[in-house]
Design brief:
By secondary structure, this protein is of the alpha/beta class. The protein folds into two domains: 174 residues, Rossmann fold; 225 residues, CoaB-like (Rossmann fold), CATH 3.40.50. The protein has 14 helices and 22 strands. The protein has an eight-stranded mixed sheet, with helices on both faces. Strand 2, helix 2 and strand 3 form a beta-alpha-beta unit. The chain is elongated and about 85 Å long.
């Protein structure tokens, strides 16, 4: 989403401006063309050379330089920008933007540009919660400015409160959300499942699998970047829910089934990338099972665990339709995408699953491979289509696989 995008990063004079260094670096690494504009006092905290070294472009700050070129420059920057991110946005700059003051390079560009504006306020909690600041933020939000809310944490003053600038991953996520508002999934609601499930044996032990959730989280992130409203239903994983994605945590297959049924009421697409356990223990002990309590039995016969079958979520949803009354897509069939993690006979099992579950697409991978197994950063998949076509995709990062899958889903949405 960031590749070749023209992004302006405005830096205000606040202690959190040092965090903008990583943001500029990450934007540039993602392929964006980044221009940095600093307010008059921002260079008291971070030197312009730092930003120019990372962006490989000049840094702009002086609207009143003697040559007069700044007047032309600020208009050119404003017209070429696809996004203006101001981080950190101080109370002073927020007030200027709210009331149309353009007395420096940054505020002049902000007033002249037609690009979407993203503000990440950061300041002492008393300044942030002051009625004047809150009124200014409300006014800007009403005009369509996108606000990344500050976090609660330790502030520069040593106090703990609201006003802390979020991490770079949040700022990048917010940038992608704003840039993707008119993407090819804008207006669509999608549900993505991710991770494995944990089926309890007792309060300590469970039956599970090795799924990391990385593929599902990549799918959720890519859909968000294309403008979709995304609900991510996730089993237990160590990943954070991507910014701008509605996360719902579950543990068991039954919980995931219930969460999916609730989420698809007005959804257009369901992508079931979660590794849902096929079986669960028939009985769950209320207390931890002790080895000493059944030692004699264990020595003679081992420990026996009776399993029962879990519901098949995709089979239950074979004929699901979009049901939101009054919506132009009401009555259309829910686009359904399944995943198959196999270790042998991939094509045979994938085709069978595609047919029996009435799927539109089935994405299959061989998890015995080191480059497409659980926890890997890359994936090697085959995409099986309902019309019989099969695509063999090369090994690529999981976000690349996600992009390829959503390309196919967008095509399906245009014809359903």
């Amino acid at each position: 989403m960031l590749l070749n995008k023209r992004i302006l990063v405005g830096i205000c004079g606040g202690i959190a401006s040092y965090k903008a260094v990583e943001l500029v670096s990450r934007l540039q690494q993602a392929g964006a063309l980044v221009d940095v504009i600093m307010s008059e006092r921002a260079d008291e905290f971070v030197r312009p050379l730092t930003f120019s070294s990372l962006s490989h472009r000049p840094v702009y700050s002086d609207l009143w330089e003697p040559s007069g070129r700044a007047a032309e420059t600020h208009i050119a920057l404003a017209e070429e920008a696809e996004l203006l991110v101001i981080v950190p946005a101080t109370a002073n700059t927020i007030a200027k933007l709210a009331h149309g003051v353009a007395d420096n390079m940054l505020t002049a560009v902000a007033l002249a540009t037609q690009a979407p504006l993203l503000l990440a306020p950061a300041m002492h909690q008393n300044m942030y919660t002051h009625p004047a600041t809150q009124a200014n933020i409300t006014l800007l939000r009403e005009r369509g400015v996108f606000i990344v809310e500050p976090e609660v944490g330790r502030l520069a003053s040593g106090e703990v409160g609201i006003g802390r600038l979020p991490d770079t991953s949040v700022l990048l996520g917010a940038s992608n959300v704003v840039l993707g508002r008119n993407g090819d999934l804008a207006g669509y609601r999608v549900v993505v499942t991710a991770g494995g499930t944990q089926e309890p044996i007792d309060p300590v032990r469970y039956v599970g699998n090795r799924s990391s959730g990385k593929m599902g989280y990549a799918l959720a992130t890519e859909a968000r970047d294309r403008g979709a409203h995304v609900i991510l239903i996730s089993g237990p994983v160590v990943l954070d829910v991507p910014y701008g994605v509605e996360g719902r945590r579950v543990e068991t297959a039954i919980q995931m089934r219930d969460a999916v049924h609730d989420a698809i009421i007005d959804a257009d697409v369901l992508v079931m990338s979660a590794a849902v356990a096929d079986f669960r223990p028939a009985e769950v002990a209320t207390q931890k099972l002790k080895k000493s309590e059944s030692q004699e039995l264990a020595e003679q016969n081992g420990f026996f665990l009776r399993l029962v079958r879990n519901p098949d979520i995709l089979e239950e949803l074979a004929d699901s339709v979009y049901t939101n009354p009054g919506n132009e897509r009401s009555g259309r069939r829910l686009v359904r995408v399944g995943f198959a993690a196999e270790t042998s006979n991939l094509a045979v099992y994938a085709r069978a699953k595609l047919i029996t579950k009435h799927l539109d697409l089935l994405v299959a991978n061989d998890v015995s491979r080191s480059d497409s197994g659980f926890g890997a950063e890359t994936n090697k998949v085959h995409i099986f289509h309902a019309n019989g076509a099969v695509e063999d995709l090369p090994v690529m990062p999981k976000i690349g696989v996600a992009a390829a899958i959503w390309d196919r889903i967008v095509s399906l949405l245009s014809t359903t």
